[in-house]
Structure formats: structure tokens, C-alpha cells
From TrEMBL:
Lineage top rank: taxon: Eukaryota
Organism listed in the record: Aduncisulcus paluster
Region (Disordered): 422-442
Occurrences of domain Rab-GAP TBC (ranges): 89-278
InterPro entries in the record: Rab-GAP-TBC_dom, Rab-GAP_TBC_sf, Rab_GAP_TBC_domain
Entry protein name: Rab-GAP TBC domain-containing protein
Length: 442
């Protein structure tokens, strides 16, 4: 990816900046990134003899050679060590290599040599519902980006999506996959690696999210709402009182894995934890965002706010939470919200200012305390039964309309198969977790 020297308008990943980051936070983050990289180097030197000793910076070629040739060590007791490092952020030089290994992608690519090339050949001239939608969506993917909107890059994104649509015919293509695929191209130059990373997200980490029906992502949105009752009761009470359904906007957060809502420097940090710890971070992050923005959303007394042992003082009219990631005068932020529509509008106007990934991740993990995966999956199944029943009836009506209007035969067939599965075996899929085995680097 090319280097950008105009950081007044674009961030380090080439996205247009709508709310500028404060110089104080930028300086803190630069210092923190350096300290974090030192920790990673120390970790690799400790457990992997092939990693060069000393603080010497390695070239990109040397880093790739290290990750391509090393043999993972099975060392008891340091799984938590790697998780904590990922929460602090993976250094940009290591990120693509670790993502590939933590996400199943490296394993899957190694076991399928040449498959991506064959899929590209097969998908060149095919005309399906999926390929037509891909063509429409490519020009609407991160419009205004300084790199992703270049014709050659758009062709690469389309090629990966077309290949995936015939590789996984049960999914084909679903809107939002274009954003995930494009975001991956910011960190990978190799199309085949992007293809297998996309496959890992869709098939392994978030199975069921990307479909014609979107039942699972609706369920997960309602699971987030359920846990808000415990972790953010004032927001939960407001949602219930005002009949505000989180599915109205949380669905897009989850399906795009925050790429279209949060600043890229924050999104990248969340993806580091996604590939390290699995889909539970989507729940932790969503709840943490509501906790941090609660004052602006539903209104609270303007007193110093204490969060998990840290007190953020109000100074010179700056909201203490907002000041942590940017400098927006408090009078420029509407508060409190009055209707569900206003809630969504204010919430999504604040998300682009969430530059402080450290605060967000600290809140998501340390602030929420124990957040067991089995609790998430238990709620998924409870909520899922009703959602699957409700969605199946909606899909049946959709199938009838498509038949009357001569809709795509293949799409009708897929929908019928989904209804049959939902009615005979109602169950919400859960994603593979990095600790399951081959995806973990240790």
C-alpha cells in the first residue's frame, strides 16, 4: 500500500478523516505502539530461537521468512500471554502473518494449493445473482478511499469475491462481504491470502452471518441487547421504554465487523482480538461502546465519571470520555437523545471519533469482567428459537413472491433449504475459536 503524507485529510490506512484526532492522543498512541512492538519482539525472542536477538528492526522480507519457516512451539501456560499481547495491538509488520495463522487461513491455504487460481479461472465468465451483485457493490465500497478505489484494486476485490461465491455456493455473496474483503487488502498484497482470510471470517469465525436470511446476526444483535441489561442498565432501560430495537443498526456493525463505523486504527485493533479470541469480542466491543457513550446518548449529570478505577475530569467544556479520543467541544454533540431515530443518529455520529482503541479494549475486557462464551451461546439458542421461527415464516412469504414474479431459481432453492433446516433442526451456529487448535500460533 502506498505511503500517504497528507495526514490532515486521510488516516494512516487511507480513509478520509471526518473528525480529526487530537495531537495529544496521537503522540500517546505513537509511544504506545513502540512499547508494544518491543513486547512482541521480546515474546518472539523468548519462545522462538529463530527470531534474531537484540532490538534490531527486521526488514519485511526477513519478517516473512521468519513466519514462513518457523515451527510453532507448544508451550504450556502462555496462551494468555499471546491474548494479552493481541489486546495491546499487533505490530503492523507482524499483523498479516499472525492474522493468517490465528484465523485458520494459513492452514486452509496450505492444504489447498492452487485452488484459488482455479476458482479465478472458473469465475471469469460466469453470470449469477452473486456476481451481478458483486459488480454493483464494488463501486460502493469505501468510496473516497485513497487506495481501495483504484481500478486495479477494485478488480482484485471483485476477483476474490467472485472466486469465493463459487467456492462456497451455500453463501455465494452477501452484502458487507465487500467491505471485509476490501479491508483485508489494506494488510495483504497477495490475493490468495485475502481469499483465505475472507473464507476464515465467513466460514470459521462468523458462520451464518452472511446469508440471504441474516437470522444469526439478528440473534446476536438481540443477545447484545440482553447483556446490556446487566452491563449498561440505563441504556437498556431507555431502549425498552422507547421500543428501540438494536437490530435496526447493530446488524451492520456486526456484519461489517465495525469497518464502516469506527476509525480504521481502532477497527484494526479489534480485528487483532477477533482473530486471537474469536467472535466474543463483537459482544464485548458493542457493549463497551454503549458504556463509553452512555452520557452522550441518554444524558447524565455532568460530573467527573469514574470507569474501572480511572477518573476522567471535565476540563474546559470537554466531555471527559470524548476528550480521550478526540477534542470535540461538548456543545457540538447533541444530548440527550429523544427517539429511536435520534438515538441511532447520535450514536453513529460519535463512533467515527472513537480513536482511543486502548480505552475501548480496556473497557471491553477489563471493564466487563467475566463474560463466559457459554453464556453467549446459551442466549443465542434461547433467542434463536423464536427468531428462526419468525424468520422462517418471512422467508416462506418471500419464496412465494419470488415464484410468482419469476425470481432466480437458485436463490429460491437456497431459501427453501434454509427454511427446511430452520424448521427441522433449529440451531444457531457458533464460530470456531482460536484455541481450538490449528489456527493458534502457539
Amino acid at each position: 500500500m502506498p505511503e500517504y503524507d497528507d495526514d490532515r485529510l486521510y488516516d494512516q490506512h487511507g480513509f478520509l478523516v471526518t473528525i480529526p484526532i487530537s495531537s495529544q492522543l496521537r503522540a500517546r498512541q505513537d509511544t504506545q505502539r513502540f512499547k508494544t512492538k518491543v513486547k512482541w519482539i521480546t515474546y518472539l525472542q523468548k519462545y522462538y530461537k529463530s527470531y534474531p536477538k537484540g532490538p534490531t528492526e527486521l526488514s519485511d522480507k526477513e519478517v516473512r521468512e521468519f513466519f514462513d519457516t518457523y515451527t510453532p512451539n507448544k508451550i504450556d501456560g502462555h496462551e494468555m500471554e499471546i491474548k494479552l499481547l493481541c489486546r495491546e495491538g499487533i505490530p503492523s509488520q507482524f499483523r498479516p502473518h499472525l492474522w493468517m495463522r490465528m484465523s485458520f487461513a494459513k492452514h486452509n491455504m496450505s492444504n489447498n494449493p492452487g485452488l484459488y487460481k482455479d476458482l479465478c479461472e472458473k469465475s471469469k465468465d460466469i453470470d449469477t445473482v452473486s456476481t451481478r451483485q458483486i459488480t454493483l457493490d464494488i463501486s460502493r465500497t469505501f468510496t473516497g478511499h485513497r487506495y481501495l478505489c483504484e481500478p486495479d484494486t477494485m478488480d482484485q476485490i471483485a476477483r476474490v469475491l467472485r472466486a469465493f461465491s463459487i467456492y462456497n455456493e451455500s453463501v455465494g455473496y452477501c452484502q458487507s462481504m465487500n467491505f471485509i474483503c476490501a479491508f483485508l487488502f489494506l494488510f495483504f498484497e497477495n490475493e490468495e491470502e485475502v481469499f483465505w482470510m475472507l473464507n476464515s471470517v465467513v466460514d470459521d469465525l462468523l458462520p451464518g452471518y452472511f446469508s440471504q436470511v441474516l437470522a444469526k446476526v439478528q440473534v446476536d444483535s438481540l443477545v447484545v441487547q440482553f447483556f446490556l441489561k446487566k452491563y449498561c442498565p440505563k441504556v437498556y432501560s431507555w431502549l425498552i421504554t422507547n421500543h428501540c430495537d438494536l437490530r435496526l443498526f447493530l446488524t451492520s456493525w456486526l456484519m461489517c465487523i465495525f469497518t464502516t463505523k469506527l476509525p480504521s486504527i481502532t477497527t484494526v485493533r479489534l480485528w487483532d482480538t477477533l482473530f486471537s479470541e474469536g467472535d466474543k469480542i463483537l459482544f464485548r466491543t458493542s457493549i463497551a461502546l454503549f458504556i463509553l457513550l452512555e452520557r452522550r446518548l441518554i444524558g447524565m449529570d455532568k460530573k467527573p465519571s469514574k470507569f474501572f478505577g480511572k477518573t476522567y475530569e471535565i476540563d474546559d467544556g470537554i466531555d471527559p470520555l470524548i476528550e480521550w479520543y478526540t477534542s470535540i467541544p461538548i456543545e457540538h454533540i447533541p444530548c440527550p437523545v429523544e427517539t429511536p431515530g435520534h438515538f441511532k443518529e447520535v450514536l453513529e455520529s460519535l463512533l467515527p471519533a472513537m480513536y482511543n482503541a486502548d480505552l475501548l479494549i480496556d473497557t471491553a475486557f477489563n471493564g466487563l469482567g467475566t463474560f463466559m462464551r457459554h453464556s453467549i451461546n446459551s442466549q443465542r439458542q434461547k433467542i434463536g428459537k423464536e427468531i428462526l421461527k419468525e424468520t422462517a415464516e418471512q422467508v416462506k412469504r418471500r419464496i412465494e413472491r419470488m415464484r410468482r414474479l419469476g425470481g432466480d431459481v437458485e436463490t429460491v432453492k437456497q431459501l427453501e433449504e434454509w427454511v427446511d433446516s430452520a424448521e427441522t433442526e433449529p440451531h444457531i451456529e457458533t464460530g470456531k475459536q482460536p484455541s481450538d487448535g490449528t489456527c493458534h500460533i502457539v
